[in-house]
Specification:
With 509 residues, this protein is mainly alpha-helical. The chain contains 23 helices and four strands.
Length: 509
């Protein structure tokens, strides 16, 4: 109606319904950029949504590639973009993150075009298709596509499920495009731009002729959009797939993480230097009392639990240093940090204190009592340290732009989870071995050793409850990334097994 049209014009910021917007081809492009658009190269399609919209609106943006390994650690990154999400658009007014939010912002920068619709109803229709794109299309499409790009491990069952979900969206698009040339009518809008950008890699890499056959209207619409100069300026020439590409091995960053792990070795130099000094002192002390030299020999050997505790504290120290480096602390400030110094002292105490008990031969009968309580405590401490390290590593990977299954299948995460599982398996054995030496001595030492046994078992059970809870959380995150949710998630066989195990442990406590 005339009233409805006038409302639409007023809503679009024009003074009268007699003023019509300039045709897209006639618009003079802006000269100064509205901001800097940062994006990750592997997921460039997210940035292309806004870049294509900018071409239609005659808007300029500066493009900048974002390197998750380097740029995510810069202190100013989280200062200006606290969520850590990429892509993001940095403007004079602040940062805008999320690909669809950036595309909406760019589309609304011009009030005299129809990119974001002609009226409120059009805007609602556009928003509907943007939601469909994000939740119904991009999630399964990228689950199917990422293994082909070498960004995620391939799971044939998951890929098949993702393919079926993509077909459902393609069917919906086919029905919609039978009634109009574009998604919300007879003109191109942001809905078309966003969906074309999301579908591009699919059409180029995995939508072979047999997959495309049931969707002729979608294919015609996609090719028509891609032939427009505004799309071509951003997407380039788009050739439809003739044969679907196969999954590739996951690309693992090999060199840089190795260097990051090698850095803490500098902390070990003073300890390495300390060994010759200790040996020199031992030799100096050996001259007046040669009999003391054989007594020092057991100091070199460490038990498995002591090594586990030392390794756990060392890992905790490395994780803390990585965290502090990300916060901008480095050099001497890093080594002088209170928490770092405390952990270094703890590490040195563990190394120095481990052989202290075997040294006096006269106390041999009392020696077994000390290790009796040590294994449970050490393994428990090691489990806690590895769990903390996994959490810190996940936070770091999230800041680098990884999420869901990418995080759970990351080489460093899987390695730490294996270590955690290995430590958890030691707990029951640790409790059994602790009881055996306690039974060997005479009645009085046995009674003394029996007293700490109960708290050790309780501590083991609590540690196992915590570890099992952590394992359930990690598994649920992994399954969510694979598309499971709600009841399907809770009914998963592995989840039910772990929940039953957790309840058993709680019942014992």
């Amino acid at each position: 109606s005339h009233f409805g049209s006038r409302q639409c014009w007023l809503k679009r910021g024009l003074l009268s319904h007699h003023i019509r917007p300039a045709p897209l081809a006639a618009m003079a492009p802006a000269t100064s950029p509205i901001g800097i658009l940062y994006y990750v190269e592997q997921t460039v399609y997210k940035a292309q949504k806004a870049l294509v919209a900018a071409k239609f609106n005659g808007i300029v943006m500066t493009e900048a590639k974002f390197n998750p390994e380097k740029d995510a650690r810069k202190p100013d990154f989280l200062a200006k973009n606290p969520t850590g999400k990429v892509p993001y658009l940095e403007t004079d007014m602040g940062c805008i993150f999320n690909s669809n939010a950036i595309a909406r912002y760019v589309a609304r920068c011009r009030a005299d075009t129809f990119i974001y619709g002609k009226c409120f109803d059009d805007e609602a229709q556009i928003d509907t298709w943007l939601e469909v794109c994000t939740h119904e299309l991009e999630v399964p499409l990228m689950t199917w596509l990422y293994p082909v790009l070498g960004l995620m491990e391939d799971d044939p069952q998951v890929t098949q499920a993702a393919s079926n979900d993509v077909k459902k969206v393609m069917t919906s698009l086919e029905q919609q495009l039978k009634s109009s040339p574009f998604l919300i009518g007879d003109f191109l809008s942001l809905a078309d731009i966003v969906l074309v950008c999301a579908l591009r890699e699919g059409f180029v890499r995995i939508f072979d002729p047999s997959f495309r056959k049931p969707y002729p209207m979608v294919c015609s619409w996609f090719e028509k959009c891609c032939s427009m100069p505004q799309f071509q300026a951003v997407l380039g020439e788009v050739k439809l797939c003739t044969q679907a590409e196969k999954p590739k091995p996951v690309q693992k960053p090999a060199a840089k993480p190795a260097k990051a792990e090698a850095k803490p070795k500098t902390d070990a130099k003073p300890k390495a230097d300390a060994k010759p000094k200790a040996e020199a002192k031992a030799k100096a002390g050996a001259k007046p009392a040669p009999a003391a030299t054989p007594a020092a020999a057991p100091a070199v050997a460490l038990s498995g639990d002591q090594e586990a505790a030392i390794k756990a504290v060392g890992d905790e120290l490395r994780t803390l240093k990585e965290k502090l480096k990300a916060e901008g602390v480095k050099g001497k400030q890093l080594n002088d940090h209170e928490e770092v110094k405390k952990l270094v002292e703890k590490l040195q105490a563990l190394k120095a204190g481990a052989p202290a008990a075997p040294a006096p031969a006269s106390a041999a009968s009392a020696a077994p009592a000390t290790p009796a309580a040590a294994p449970a405590g050490n393994v428990e401490a090691a489990i806690k340290a590895v769990g903390d390290e996994i959490r810190a590593l996940k936070e770091k990977l999230k800041a680098e732009g990884l999420s869901g299954k990418q995080i759970n299948t990351h080489a460093d995460i899987t390695k730490q989870v294996e270590k955690l599982n290995a430590l958890k398996q030691q707990l029951p054995a640790g409790g059994a071995s602790a009881a055996a030496p306690a039974a060997a001595p005479a009645a009085a030492p046995a009674a003394a050793a029996a007293a700490p046994a109960a708290p050790a078992a309780e501590g083991d059970a609590e540690a196992m409850i915590k570890a099992t809870g952590d394992e359930i959380r990690v598994l649920k995150e992994k399954l969510k990334a694979e598309g499971l949710k709600g009841k399907a998630l809770n009914e998963h066989a592995d989840v039910k097994r772990l929940v039953a195990q957790l309840q058993e442990l709680k019942a014992k406590v």
